[in-house]
Specification:
Blueprint (H helix, E strand, L loop, with lengths): L3 H5 L11 E5 L5 E7 L2 E4 L2 E6 L8 H10 L4 E5 H5 L3 H15 L3 E5 L2 H6 L7 H8 L6 E3 L11 H15 L7 E6 L4 H14 L6 E5 L7 H18 L4 E5 L4 H9 L4 E4 L1 H4 E3 L6 E3 L11 H4 L8 H25 L3 H9 L1 H9 L1
Parallel strand pairs: 4-5, 4-11, 5-6, 6-7, 7-8, 8-9, 9-10, 10-11
Antiparallel strand pairs: 1-2, 2-3, 12-13
Length: 351
C-alpha cells in the first residue's frame, strides 16, 4: 500500500524547473539544458558510474579522483553508500558534498549491486535512509526486477508502487522513474501504461540497456518507441539508458531520443578514441593515443591504472561535447552513416 503522504509530495516535482529544449535535430536527437542547484547539465551526456561489484577500485579513491580532476558528473550507488563502514561514511559523505558544489551527482538505487550480491535486506527503507543523508542532484526510484513466477499485472503494480513511494523525495532534485521488463515489447507497454496513469511523474525515466533488446537495431527501435511515448506527454522528458557506455550505441540512442547514459566501462576497459572500440584495460599503450593524458606530463608519470581511468574520463567528456556539437549542427545522421552504415540509420527513420 502506498502511503498517502508520499502521494501528496508528488506536487513537489512541479517546483522543479523544467529542462530548456535548446535544439531539435534529426530523428529524435536534441539538446536540453537542465538547471541543477546553480549548475547546468547539458544533454546528451554521460555519467561515469561507481560500483562495488566487480570493480577493484574503492568508492573513496574514485570519488577523490573525480573531484581532484574536476570531472563534472558521477553516478553513485546508494547500496554502496549504505554499506560503507561507519568509521568511513562521514568522510565519504563529506567528499560527496564537496564534489556536488561544482559537479553533478546522480544517486542510483543500488539494485544492480544488491542483486549480484543476493542481498535481500536491501529495501526501500534502507534506500530512503541514504536519500536523507547524501547530497545529490538526480536520483532514481527504488527499482525491482520481475520474479520468475510474477505475472505482468503483479509486476506492474510492484513497479508502480515503488516509483510512487520513491518520488519525489526532495523538491530541488531531478527524479528518474526506472522500469525493467523481460522483453522490449513488455517494457514499452509498461512505460506507456505508467505515462497514461501517472503523467506528472514521467518527466524523466530510465531503462537498462540490457532490457531494451538483443540487437542494436532492436534496442534502437525500443528507444524510439519510448521516446514517442514520452513526447506525447512532454517532449522535455529525459530518457536515461542505464549501463550504456559504448560510444557507437550512445550515438545511435541519442539519434533515437535518449538523453543521458551511465556505465562502468571507464573502470573496466580502455576506450579507443580513434575507432570507438572498447579494448582490454591493459592495452592503453597499444592504442597509440595522442590525448593529453597519454602524451603530457604529469599524466605520463601517473600510476598505470590511474592513467587509464583519466584517459577514459577525458574521452567521454570530449565525446559528449562532440555529440552535442553534431546535434547542434544537424550532422549526427551523416556521422552515423560513416560509423554504423546507412542501412541501420535509414531503417530507424522508417520506424
Amino acid at each position: 500500500m502506498v502511503d498517502i503522504n508520499y502521494l501528496r509530495t508528488i506536487r513537489c516535482c512541479d517546483l522543479m524547473k523544467k529542462p530548456n529544449l535548446i535544439h531539435i535535430s534529426e530523428k529524435s536527437s536534441r539538446i536540453l539544458e537542465i538547471p541543477l542547484n546553480g549548475k547546468t547539465l547539458s544533454t546528451p551526456t554521460y555519467f561515469p558510474a561507481i560500483s562495488s561489484y566487480g570493480i577493484k577500485f574503492s568508492l573513496n579513491d574514485l570519488l577523490y579522483l573525480l573531484k581532484f580532476h574536476k570531472y563534472p558528473r558521477v553516478l553513485i550507488s546508494a547500496y554502496d553508500l549504505h554499506h560503507i563502514k561507519k568509521t568511513e561514511k562521514k568522510k565519504v559523505l563529506s567528499l560527496i558534498e564537496g564534489y556536488r558544489k561544482t559537479g553533478v551527482i546522480f544517486l542510483d538505487s543500488g539494485l544492480f549491486e544488491s542483486s549480484w550480491k543476493d542481498d535481500e535486506r536491501w529495501n526501500i527503507n534502507a534506500y530512503r535512509s541514504i536519500l536523507s543523508q547524501a547530497k545529490f542532484d538526480l536520483y532514481s526510484s527504488f527499482d525491482v526486477y520481475r520474479a520468475y513466477e510474477e505475472s505482468y499485472e503483479q509486476f506492474k503494480k510492484n513497479t508502480y508502487d515503488h516509483i510512487l513511494e520513491s518520488s519525489p523525495f526532495l523538491n530541488k532534485t531531478v527524479f528518474f522513474a526506472i522500469f525493467h521488463e523481460s522483453s522490449p515489447t513488455q517494457l514499452v507497454r509498461l512505460v506507456e501504461e505508467f505515462v497514461e496513469k501517472h503523467s506528472s511523474l514521467c518527466r524523466n525515466i530510465a531503462v537498462a540497456e540490457r532490457d531494451i533488446g538483443k540487437s542494436i537495431q532492436e534496442r534502437s527501435e525500443t528507444v524510439v518507441a519510448i521516446r514517442k511515448t514520452l513526447d506525447d506527454n512532454d517532449n522535455r522528458s529525459l530518457l536515461h539508458i542505464l549501463g550504456c557506455g559504448n560510444p557507437l550505441s550512445m550515438l545511435l540512442y541519442s539519434f533515437c531520443g535518449a538523453d543521458c547514459f551511465d556505465s562502468l566501462d571507464w573502470l573496466k576497459y580502455a576506450i579507443n578514441p580513434d575507432n570507438y572500440s572498447v579494448d582490454d584495460f591493459s592495452h592503453l599503450e597499444l592504442l597509440k593515443c595522442k590525448c593529453r593524458v597519454c602524451t603530457e606530463l604529469p599524466y605520463m608519470s601517473a600510476d598505470y591504472s590511474e592513467k587509464v581511468l583519466l584517459h577514459n574520463l577525458l574521452f567521454y567528456q570530449n565525446f559528449v561535447m562532440q555529440m552535442q556539437s553534431l546535434i547542434r549542427n544537424d550532422n549526427l545522421k551523416a556521422y552515423l552513416h560513416k560509423w554504423v552504415g546507412r542501412n541501420v540509420v535509414d531503417q530507424l527513420e522508417k520506424y
